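Friendly challenge for the regulars: who can give me the structure tokens for this chain first? No prize, just bragging rights.
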Amino acid sequence: MSAELLHVTPIQVRFGDTDRFGHINNASFATYSESARIELITSLGYPLGGMILAHMAIDFRRQLHVGDPLLVLSRIERIGRSSIAMRQSLVRPGAPEAGHGPARAVPLPEAPRGEVVADIATVIVTYDYREERSVPVPDDLRARLAPFCGPLPGGGGAGR
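First reply, four minutes later:
Bragging rights claimed.
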């Protein structure tokens, strides 16, 4: 695997995601982020049952409408003892066809370009639901996430 990877998740923007003003409702952005987090984690062969969302911040940059192509670009900002900080940019790609296809890992220099509609920062925690407490990030997950560690292209991410 390449030393520097970016995870790209195409999102189907649906009519049901709109609000009464005709643009995509703010709450839908959290769902898009979640879909991309799930795609990244499961693509690495890690089960979802051992994580919980601890924090999310969204900076909205542009409106999004039904029919707009959309990509979620994801990178890992930091891996702590039991937490994983992720940065995501929701991008309206310059080429509409880029918004289709399967989720995939791409080398950082091949990152899709486009207009950033939102920047998202999340922290997920590896978690034991039975004991209701955090647990250390497993070494195998830490190793699988390593190629995705680093800043997003263009320095995206909420709070920046």
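The chain has two helices and seven strands. The chain has one domain: 5-151. Your move, everyone else.
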